[in-house]
Design brief:
single chain; alpha/beta; four-stranded parallel sheet; 194 residues; 8 helices
Length: 194
């Protein structure tokens, strides 16, 4: 979108950006959430966007967008698409997590675990993490402290990409939000062999 076209986007309406997380992080529009084109696209779309809420849909190609519109229709959300458009250059970037600094200074971050409560209880990866399930982020955003940079994790990186982008959009750049991504695997407890 040109800057003129970007100005025509309605305030407060989320943009569902379906591109790969690495592409999204290099440049995305304000108020966007990165729900990647993947096996559970509809599940997470329905978890993040309310049933009567409108949203924009953007992606890499018209072919991808057409396919995702069909998938959106499968959960009854097609009428909620305000507009679909191709993603273009955008100014907002997601900061990359300094993995060495994070490993040595976890206390300097608010760590958010976006997994389901049962997963978070069964396998607590970071002792100081706060559990805010992905589907509840919008309603519980006020419970997330933002006096420190926020680092978001799940089990493998897909949900944390959604969660970190959503938190960043909701907090409107008031604090840095990092996606721990698949780096979380280095902290996961290894199963013991008995």
């Amino acid at each position: 979108l040109s800057s003129e076209q970007q100005g025509s986007l309605a305030d407060g309406v989320l943009i569902v950006d379906t591109r790969d997380e690495q592409v999204y992080k290099k440049g995305h529009l304000p108020n966007s959430v990165n729900i990647m084109d993947g096996k559970k696209f509809e599940t997470w779309l329905g978890s993040i966007i309310g049933p009567k809420e409108t949203f924009y849909l953007t992606g890499d190609s018209w072919r991808v967008l057409e396919r995702l519109i069909v998938r959106t229709a499968s959960i009854g959300y097609e009428p909620a698409i305000k507009s679909a458009f191709l993603a273009g250059p955008a100014r907002l970037q997601t900061p990359l997590l300094d993995q060495i600094h994070f490993r040595q200074n976890q206390h300097e971050y608010t760590i958010i675990d976006v997994r389901n409560p049962s997963e978070a209880i069964e396998d607590k990866i970071f002792e100081s993490s706060i559990s805010v399930p992905l589907a509840e982020i919008r309603e519980k955003i006020g419970n997330i402290p933002f006096d420190k940079p926020i680092a978001v994790h799940c089990a493998s990186g897909y949900r944390s990409a959604i969660g970190s982008s959503l938190i960043a959009a909701l907090l409107n750049s008031q604090v840095q939000v990092f996606d721990i991504g698949d780096f979380v695997k280095e902290f996961s407890k290894q199963p013991t062999v008995s």
